[in-house]
Amino acid sequence: MKTANDHFIAFECLNSIGNSLELEEMLSEVISTFIRWTGAIAGKYIEPESLSSVPKHIGIDFSTPEILIASDEPFGLHQTSEGTVILDVPVDSGHFLFVFREDTAIESFGIMLSTFRIKLFNAINACKNVENLRTLNVNLEQQLDAEKNKNKMTEKLMISQSRMAVMGEMIGMIAHQWRQPITVIGIIANNTLLDIQLENTNSKQLINDLKLIDKHIHFLSRTIDDFRNFFRPNKLPQPVTFGEIAKDLMTIMGKSFDSQQIFLSFEGDSEIAFTTYKNELLQVFLNILNNAKDAFAENIIEHPAIRFHLSENEKNSLLFLISNNAGSIPSHILERIFEPYFSTKSEKNGTGLGLYMSSIIVEKHLNGSLRACSDANETTFAVHIPKNSNAKQYNVY
Ligand SMILES: Nc1ncnc2c1ncn2[C@@H]1O[C@H](COP(=O)(O)OP(=O)(O)OP(=O)(O)O)[C@@H](O)[C@H]1O
Ligand SMILES: [Mg+2]
């Protein structure tokens, strides 16, 4: 018959089960409570076959009996050589083991603990599930981070591919700017050489020629500076006027447009002032203008012309309309031109990133929108941006 004391011990032990979702903490509380109330010398929980993260034992370590009781038995007793008895209560894949002096009421503690087996089993499993969920969560977070990094890398790659393509165009434009001064320098050098051979040198003439060479060299070096400044991304928005934008575009593209007899006109008040990431906006315009230049060449247009029109739309926004008369873009192409890597230029080996990057720049960096429409003769790109861009810093790759 159970005494009031037995009930009290059972109540305390039962109460200690499942008070934490940390496996080690929960089991430690159960073991220490059981030791305290039953007078056991030591106690531990082990999972002999466990592959999970459960440590080899929880509690005070002592030698584990070689053969443990089968899991379908309520409990077992193992006699030790030190004159003690080990109580062995199997719970699912683990065992609770408690060392007692021989003269203790071990059997009744065995019966008591074995009646808690379902509760112990549930509490252990709850802890393990929480642990698995935590690991799963960490794995998911790691996967998410990896995906984010992958996306960032792809974006970086695209930006650098697009920049390489723009640089390719730039080298072509520099070549146009340089052709004339280099020819002049070459002619002066040849003439001077001839004068020396004919012993016809005249120091005044020589000085004039050298001054002319110097002037042209300055022009060459200024061209490089213009292009270099243009390709350096702005970190902060800067004040600029429509007139300055027009001048920069003419400096960069003028000569190459002249060589193909492309007529570029600017319509709108050149005094219109706004604040934006100027170089990024120029990069967008350059992509649009270069595409028009390619379309003129492909469609063999007799009088190629580009109209660049600026209007102040609503209170704080600007609308740039850039139209060219290179013919229409078929609708199945038009709907794809802003997709990354979409290009119809197999001969020129287009990257198909020009307009994609332009839309990213306009939408993400300049807080605006970029659209295109095309009718029988004309294609128009509309760049809509706020008059004053926020001075938020963005990543420059
Ligand atoms: N003004 C235009 N007239 C006709 N087609 C155009 C025009 N602008 C763009 N396109 C079409 O849009 C496609 C995508 O343009 P995008 O600038 O993104 O790439 P791309 O010009 O082909 O390559 P890249 O810019 O690297 O030279 C072009 O291949 C072309 O078919
Ligand atoms: Mg392009």
Please tell me about this protein's structure.
The protein starts with a helix and ends in an 11-residue tail after the last strand. The chain has 9 helices and 12 strands. It folds into 3 domains: 4-115, 2-Layer Sandwich (Beta-Lactamase), CATH 3.30.450.40; 148-231, Orthogonal Bundle (Helix Hairpins), CATH 1.10.287; 233-397, Heat Shock Protein 90, CATH 3.30.565. It has a 5-stranded antiparallel β-sheet. It is of the alpha+beta class and 397 residues long. Helix 1 packs antiparallel against helix 2, helix 6 packs parallel to helix 7 and helix 7 runs antiparallel to helix 9 (354-365). Residues 393-397 have low confidence and may be disordered. Bound molecules: adenosine-5'-triphosphate and magnesium ion. Adenosine-5'-triphosphate binds next to helix 7 and helix 9.
Helical run tally: 9
Give the topology string: H per helix, E per strand: HHEEEEEHHHEHEEHEEHHEE
Spatial order of the strands forming the largest sheet: 2-1-5-4-3
The appropriate CATH architecture of the largest domain is 2-Layer Sandwich
What share of residues are in beta strands?
Answer: 15-25%
Overall residue-averaged pLDDT value: 87
Low-confidence stretches: 393-397
Name the CATH superfamily assignment of the largest domain: Histidine kinase-like ATPase, C-terminal domain
The proportion of residues forming helix, as a percent range, comes to 40-55%
The best one-word shape is: elongated
CATH class category label of the largest domain: Alpha Beta
Largest sheet: 5 strands, antiparallel
Subunit organisation of the chains:
single chain
Radius of gyration from CA coordinates: 41 Å
| Ligands and ions found | adenosine-5'-triphosphate, magnesium ion
N-to-C span: 81 Å
Domain module tally: 3
CATH topology of the largest domain: Heat Shock Protein 90
Find the structural class using helix and strand composition. Answer: alpha+beta
What is the number of strand segments?
Answer: 12
